[in-house]
Amino acid sequence: MGYSRSTALTILGKVALLGLLIQAPNVALAGESAPATTPLHSAPSSALAFVQDRHLGEGLGWLGYQVASRTVTFATIVETVGRTKAQEIVQDELQYLQPQYQQEWDRNLAAAYAASFSPEELTALDVGDPPPDIANKFRAKQRDVGLDMKGRSSELLKVYVSTALDNALKKAKP
User: Fold this and answer.
1) Model's pTM, two decimal places?
2) Which of 31, 39, 91, 148 is buried deepest, with most CB atoms within 10 A?
């Protein structure tokens, strides 16, 4: 069973975006002051509808865990409670905090898509089975969208992950 072109494009968009964002700059360690989040970026409603309807921002929690698991703070939590418990605590904290960051994440992602696509193109992508020229542009622009999103959301990701790690570290202390 194959994927429809629309489903394949959605999957491609998520994979490409997450691949670029996982290379986010170092996350503030627990106890360090974290920078303020970036301001909300306005995006056309077609871009936000596209991101939300296609669930393109849903990788925030997974991405947060990928970044968190590479920090010294995570290693400290592992030393304190063991790998399995550390993973559980950090994932729980990320999941708990995600709703506080998801809306801004989605808006940033929508703004990144709006910078590369017209409202009409985004509507065609959102409706599904877009014309081949728009589908090809979607594939070709994933790196640009990912780099734009990285610029818009690196600080947000840092704050999200550092807050979760700080909370997890407190829970891991004996």
Assistant:
1) 0.77
2) 148
